[in-house]
Design brief:
about 25% helix, metal-binding, zinc, MYND-type domain-containing protein, zinc ion binding, single chain, about 25% strand, three-stranded antiparallel β-sheet
Amino acid sequence: MPHHLVGGEEVVFLYGDSDAVSAVHEVPRFDGPTVCRITEAAARVNGKRGVLRTRIGGGGVPAPTMIRSVAAALGLPTRLLGGGGARSLLGGAPYPLEIVAAPVTIRLLRGPGAAPLEWDAPLVLVVPDEYKCTDWELQLGHMFRAEFGAFETNDSMTVRAPAGAAPGTPAPAPVPYIAPRRGAQVTLGTSTFVVADDTMAEARRAASDMRAEAALASASAGTRFLGRGACAECGAARGDLTVCAACQGVLDVYYCGRDCQRSSWWSGHKDACQRAQAARRG
């Protein structure tokens, strides 16, 4: 399991048969006296047995507003999404592996020594099918946006205090969100966390590919064909062409126009193009 905590706490559900009982481990950090508290308990989610592991502390920046909520997750009952009162955060029919935990209290600190503001809200753990959801769709957005006026960034969800909050209440404050993981693990975190390393690497690769394709398309538009060789379909290499079309799959294949590109696609280029795109994603 990658070590990707920035600070605070982590809850991970590990699939697999286990007879683990509740246990607490105090783990000193190698670089100092900071203690990380790890609690494990046997759990069953959607009929699958596993271990629900909670880690509190051991990070660089504590997240005191979420410690109680995350620690309490070990004791919360779970039920299939679609039961009474449940709703899908992603819209439409619930995904097969979504689960809903019992309500928890979200604490928004008002400042040192001040009493926190508290709201009860359902804590939703999304255990996604990674082939049906994109990374950022998995954040807990819709419910908090509707109830608390939440707003979203790439890797966190924050909540604005409602209009009736005490004067001086800071906003935003952290609330839970879900980050997908490779394999069978899902991480519950707060806005003090970064997304798991492997997920961020995938997002960076996708963004890099998009930037490269956009730059190539921009360079192709309004650029003469000189230096690009012949059209892959008709063989034309006329220097007076002011627009050429670059294949977005096989990036070094060019056409003198959309008609040639369409003809090439249906005459056999489709398979090569799709293989090239799949290779870049993989």
